[in-house]
Write a structure and sequence with these properties.
With 168 residues, the chain is mostly helical. It is built from six helices and no strands.
Length: 168
C-alpha cells in the first residue's frame, strides 16, 4: 500500500491554484481592443468601401466600454474584509489543531507551521498577496478577474476552516 504524498485538501488547493493560473494566463492573453473606425477609406483598392461600411454599421452597435471603478469601492472592501476574516479564522483553527497534536496538510503552509509567528506571517502574506494580485488585475483592466481572485481565496479558506473544524 503506497502512501499518497498530498492529502485531499492539499490536492484540491493545488488543483484550484493551477486552474486559477490557467484561467489567468488565458485572460492575460485576451486583450479587448476597441478599434477606431474612420469614415475615410483606408486604401483605394476594391476593399476601400469596407471600412466605411464597417464604421457606419458596427460603430453604432458596439457596446460602450464598462465604466471604470475605483479599486477600493464597496464591493472590493467587502471582499477583502471577508478574505482577511477567513484567513484569520484559518490561522486560528490551524494553530489550535497544531497545538493539539495535529499536522498541517498544506505543503506550502507546512513550511511556516513551526511557530505561531511563522504561521501568522503565512496568513498575513496570503491576505496581502490576494489584495496585491487584485490590484494588479485592476490596473491592467481585468476587472472580472480582480473580483474572482478574492472570491477564490474566500472559497478555499472557508473550505479549509470547515475541514479543520470537522476534524476536531
Amino acid at each position: 500500500m503506497s502512501k499518497q504524498p498530498f492529502s485531499s485538501r492539499a490536492r484540491r488547493k493545488i488543483t484550484g491554484t493551477i486552474l486559477l493560473a490557467l484561467v489567468s494566463a488565458t485572460a492575460f492573453a485576451q486583450q479587448a481592443s476597441l478599434a477606431r473606425f474612420d469614415d475615410a477609406p483606408v486604401s483605394t483598392g476594391p476593399t476601400a468601401s469596407a471600412p466605411a461600411a464597417l464604421s457606419s454599421g458596427v460603430a453604432s452597435s458596439l457596446p460602450e466600454a464598462p465604466s471604470h471603478h475605483r479599486f477600493w469601492d464597496n464591493e472590493n472592501r467587502a471582499l477583502f474584509v471577508t478574505v482577511a476574516a477567513l484567513c484569520a479564522a484559518d490561522f486560528t483553527v490551524t494553530r489550535a489543531n497544531l497545538q493539539s497534536g495535529g499536522r498541517e496538510l498544506n505543503p506550502l503552509t507546512r513550511i511556516f507551521s513551526g511557530s505561531t509567528a511563522g504561521l501568522a506571517v503565512n496568513f498575513v502574506g496570503e491576505t496581502a498577496g490576494v489584495i496585491g494580485l487584485s490590484y494588479y488585475l485592476h490596473k491592467t483592466g481585468h476587472h472580472q478577474l480582480e473580483r474572482l481572485t478574492p472570491m477564490f481565496n474566500i472559497g478555499s479558506s472557508a473550505f479549509a476552516v470547515a475541514y479543520d473544524l470537522s476534524r476536531r
